[in-house]
Amino acid sequence: MNELSDNQQDTEKLQTLKRLATTVYLCQLLSFTLLGVPLLIGVAINFMNRSDAQGTWLESHFNWQIYTAWVTLAGFALAGLTFETGIGLYILLPTILLLVYRIVIGWSALNSDRPIKASN
Description:
Distance between the termini: 40 Å
Helix content: over 70%
Structural class: mainly alpha
Order of helices and strands: HHHH
Radius of gyration: 16 Å
């Protein structure tokens, strides 16, 4: 009976973590329309729940999402600082493309119940 309860708890934990990872991918996607604020909300969700994901296949998604947020924020900041010089656009476009790529790769793997198999 206890084993069944433990398995049920593990399944529920994974489902909760998967919903959180899905929410973070959605936050990353919404960053395009809400000036990056959802990106910060998403990374906060990751940090608050990262320890719960440790040791599960979802840990790779949490790490992937955190790395995505920091790289995107750095790219946006650098693009903003250099926009007047004309360089900013050349930094902003690859940053946006990288964000889209990482959302698509991550969300696809998540929907297939697979970990991310990249080193960030």
